[in-house]
Fold Response regulator transcription factor.
Amino acid sequence: MEQVKILLAEDDANLGLLLKEYLIAKNYNTTLCEDGDKAYDEFLKNPFDLCIFDIMMPHRDGFTLAKDIRLINSEIPIIFLTAKSMKEDVLEGFKLGADDYMTKPFSMEELLVRIEAVLRRTAGVKPENNQEEFKLGRYTFDAKKQYLVDGDNTIKLTTKESELLKLLCNNVNKVLERNLALKTIWSDDNYFNARSMDVYITKLRKHLKEEPSIEIINVHGKGYKLIM
Amino acid sequence: MEQVKILLAEDDANLGLLLKEYLIAKNYNTTLCEDGDKAYDEFLKNPFDLCIFDIMMPHRDGFTLAKDIRLINSEIPIIFLTAKSMKEDVLEGFKLGADDYMTKPFSMEELLVRIEAVLRRTAGVKPENNQEEFKLGRYTFDAKKQYLVDGDNTIKLTTKESELLKLLCNNVNKVLERNLALKTIWSDDNYFNARSMDVYITKLRKHLKEEPSIEIINVHGKGYKLIM
DNA sequence: ATTATGACTTAACAATCTTTAACACACAAG
DNA sequence: CTTGTGTGTTAAAGATTGTTAAGTCATAAT
């Protein structure tokens, strides 16, 4: 399971950090740069799947940055973030091959769904990366088919078991926060759903008990962590 | 270069005509429908490359229309146009697989550049309205003739079997929600029809049992998912 | 007209999934 | 240590789904 890499250029440190934290929490590998020059250097050094650029930045504005990057990569999706909502700017942005253009202030959730919409279309370019398979020690976990395979023994997981294990796998060795998991899988983080989640953690532990190198540990008051 | 066909659903006759004229002037073959029902019928009759839907419309609102169309074609790009800018609506729109979401009032030029941005990404996705043939591993499913072919062995499917399998195929690897399938095939989602649907799922599973790479899995409380 | 056939629905019961309840234990703060 | 809250675990309850078979209806064949 490959992580999507996002290059984020935003000179407002507050907004930048906020966005970065949020995107990382949503499992996007996010690199933040505080101006256009730094973002350009970063782009040259590392491969990315998606760009999110503020327009007004020191050293190199978002439009110029996009133009320069388009010279190197004409396919990578670009989303512009800006306080300017003037028509000419929007048009200019799309002329540079933007995939979306969001005017501040915007909600983080809206940015997220727009990112997903763009990636959904971009992913179609290379349609093989849907393989949702994880190696867990002696086990192989197929999130799509909801199977947990251990040699010749195949355990069929239920939907909830599979969704939860997948979230844990996407955050190996990191804390999967309760409320995030609940909102993602149960769409509501009330007391009863939280207890239900605990029950599923027990179920998963039982399923994985044959492999001592894998453990789901609790982080008190925070959530769970899959370690391996 | 074939002309791009746009299905436009907008109940405000003034705005609708204005948009239609504008899009036609920009060389988009545009069909205007004044409500959701007419748009749905039009979609069933002819193949399109892009949908542009108003949200608030008589007979069938834009969201419902999109949901119904997604059952038949899960790939066609959809842009929502609306006066509602509330966060929940935007998120709802994208959850239905929207590609963009524009809040009125907007400039026609901005709509145009956003259309172009969407089409740039979806280029190569041919309109699959009339696609009636699906490859299911070793099987070939002809939805029109209601045949399921496996080498020299041809199984004749009943109408309901075929309709259900077609819906599943149109949503491969995604959850086909019970109530949507029931509304589409049985036109009513009461308890008995739901049970009938379960019976047909069993029948389909039996028909597809020779191909282990294909499975119809249940998503508890939600619906079924054809995975391959 | 009667019978046979096939598609679809309804019934019945088994199996499974998820939630809720109950009680035991662990952790952090005072 | 004690208390309140969070977590581990099991079991039961409640709901959904799997499956087979019988029932219903329309149509075709005799």
Summary: The longest helix of chain B spans residues 191-207. The mean pLDDT of chain B is 91. Helices of chain B lie at 13-25, 36-45, 62-72, 87-95, 108-122, 159-169, 178-186, 191-207. DSSP finds eight helices and twelve strands in chain B.
